[in-house]
Design a protein that fits this description.
Layout: H1 3-12, H2 25-45, H3 65-120, E1 137-141, E2 144-149, E3 159-162, E4 168-171, H4 181-222, H5 228-247, H6 253-274, H7 277-299, H8 301-319, H9 328-339, H10 343-374, H11 384-412, E5 424-429, H12 438-445, E6 458-461, E7 469-474, H13 479-482, E8 486-489, E9 492-497
Antiparallel strand pairs: 1-2, 3-4, 5-7, 5-9, 6-7, 8-9
Helix pairs in contact: 2-6, 2-7, 3-4, 3-7, 3-11, 4-8, 4-10, 5-6, 6-7, 7-8, 8-10, 8-11, 9-10, 10-11
GO molecular function: lipid binding
InterPro entries: ApoL
Keywords: Membrane, Transmembrane, Transmembrane helix
Amino acid sequence: MSKRKLLFKKIFCSNECDSEPFLDDGDVSLASFVYNVACEEIREDNDYSDDEPDMDGKDEDTYSILSFDEKVDAAVENFERVVALFKKTKKAKDSFLKSFEQWAPTCKNNIQLLKESAEAIQTDKFNSDIAKVVGGVVAAVGGIVFGISFITPLAVVTVPLAIGGGIASAVGGTVVAGTTGTEIALLKKKLEGARALVQQEMERFFAMTHWFSFPEEVKKALESLLSYNLLKEMAADLKKFFDEVTREANLTVGDFKLRFKEVLKLCMKKMITSSKITYEFGDDVAPVVMTFVFVFCLMKGQNRIVLDCVMITQRLAVGLLSVFDLGVQAGQLIGRLALKGAASAGEALAKFAIMEALVGLGVLIDVVNVVLSSIDLHKRPETEATKKIKEAADKLEKVFSFIESVYNEVKKYKTLARTDVNDWTAVVVSHIPDDAEKEDIKTAVKPHLPEEAWSCIKLKKLPTNGNNWLVKVPTNHSQLLLEQSHLIINEKSCAVTQ
């Protein structure tokens, strides 16, 4: 067996790996095909003959055994780092989605409460003989609640309050029975309910903050193998390919494989000519790296979410500049960092958005309570505090919109798991060639399913005459498959019936 094949088995085949393999058994056949194409493209690029390079040679065109082993170890170390981060990112993504779904209704309610409160103190329903209204005051710094002070009825008090946004007030007040007591009690009840949820929301916010750190880590790990911009370019090439073949009816497996090989060779050429892979890993180890990047990062549906998350973080970093008044110089600096892909820019600004929302929640409770405690309601002045309520509502709403847009993006790229599917639709594919394997059947089915459902194809051989198979797919993704009268499997037309 050649050294190239031995290297492939050592890296990708489960029975050769000392630890958990990088690829599932179902991906190894694809990886083998990709690996062979990568080797061919490198030989063509270097005008090699069909003879393999002598990895044991010591001249300037080849590498010593030590150099070869070092490059293999470096590649494996990078692979392990990427695989581990992909797994952690999957968990962080699930936590982010869950946290947002729990937090979103409360945040929307709080935004509405802010707006209603700002309007309420200016309306005639508070026009009464009340001189001062004294209520609970929450002291906050940076949006984190750390104390509650309730003022004794009929007591004249002075309440200092400092909020990160700049409100500081020392007010005196006395509770006086009046015609607006019911309205005030209802408003205070709303505020107290919101106040009770702040700690829960903070925990959910921090869970979302944790999510934003992973895309940058993954990006750095991938850039130890190749340029992120190149990876993004190849992802676009593959997306275009899959979009085209999915739209075509009665596409033969032969045509599918031919066109797939074209886009595969295009990506291999780009990695050879436009990346550092061959320079850093040499022509002997480079095909392994190229195979890992293409199969693990670009072809495995559940892993492409990682690349999309990196882009989401970058968009968030740039988009935040339009939400917050950071100053011209600060905005330009952060913008340059984000556009250059600085590792800290996206993560820092994402966390900044989270903290701004936390401050907004603190302002929601603090400022409105100050209003209830200190403003002479019957005069209904357009006070600084009232303006702050409106500002808090606007800022919190903008932050929510940005986090919601990230949520919507992440949710889009969800790969279905079989455990997520409750309803299945079955078809029978008849007279499949005897030499066809399960992967050949799946390859014929995949162009007629959305990509997110590719991992949810169930196959069962039927106990009937002929090589007939039952194929099950998720019902809500079965429409295109049900429109097919035949599937082409190993160049043979096989009837599809329900």
